[in-house]
Specification:
By secondary structure, the protein is α+β, with helices and mostly antiparallel strands. Helices cover 13% and strands 32% of the residues. It contains 5 helices and 10 strands. The strands form 2 sheets. The protein has a 5-stranded mixed beta barrel with strand order 1-2-8-7-4. The protein has a 3-stranded antiparallel β-sheet with strand order 5-6-10, with no helix packed on it.
């Protein structure tokens, strides 16, 4: 996942701002930006949460590594996600994400984003878990669906990118009609997106710089000068 823009307050109309630097290679268990609504307050709030949902009833945080994604088709019936889907939904802000396509013996990473490189939001779920000392850990998971035409030859799933017109209803903790919510969890319009190959630098989590998200042709050209 990539996150280069610091425009959440304006784009998502949030009531607060968190000091967060651009990221180019966010990995599971690291912090991502989420937007949510408190039941008692109608405004949207931006905060950071650990990527990899830890249900409030979990015995330890390790389960989060297995719950970075939630399948939209079954989310309402899975114990780990059921309650969060009912009332703890969030937006997860990003401006791109990576998927890998197998090419002979290797895998080629691709960057996916919108045609204009603008900010967007994944459909997400969040939860709050407490460790043995009582320290609270907030975490999240990204909803996935079947791939659109742009992703189909790369991966059999894609993250759900929500349309802005659905933000309010998705964030409303009091709205619990699963049938209406699931109608939002469709593959995003492929004609509004673009993809390009990137360097295998993105395969290593220690690499987190603009080169990770740069088009492979641009990286090659820069290295030749």
């Amino acid at each position: 996942m990539t996150y280069k823009y610091i425009g959440d307050q304006e784009y998502f109309d949030t009531a607060d701002e968190v000091d967060w630097e651009p990221r180019y290679n966010i990995a599971p268990s690291q912090s991502v930006g989420i937007i949510r609504r408190d039941p008692a307050q109608p405004e949207r709030r931006f905060s950071l949460a650990r990527w990899g949902l830890i249900p409030y009833w979990a015995k330890d945080a390790g389960i989060g590594y297995k719950l970075i994604n939630a399948r939209s088709e079954t989310v309402g019936g899975k114990p780990a996600f059921r309650e969060a889907f009912e009332s703890r939904r969030c937006l997860i802000s990003a401006d791109g994400f990576y998927e890998w396509k197998r090419a002979e013996k290797a895998k080629q990473p691709f960057h996916f984003g919108l045609q204009d490189d603008s900010l967007f939001a994944f459909a997400g779920l969040w939860d709050r878990w407490k460790d043995a000392s009582g320290q609270a850990v907030e975490s999240c998971s990204i909803l996935t669906t079947t791939p659109n035409a742009l992703l189909a030859d790369v991966h059999d799933r894609m993250p759900v990118i929500l349309s802005p017109e659905h933000y309010d209803l998705w964030l409303d903790p009091g709205f619990r009609r699963a049938d209406v919510l699931k109608e939002m969890l469709n593959p995003f319009d492929a004609t509004l997106m673009r993809r390009y190959p990137v360097s295998t630098r993105v395969n290593f989590v220690k690499n987190d710089d603009p080169e990770c998200a740069a088009a492979l042709q641009a990286v090659s050209a820069a290295g030749a000068t």
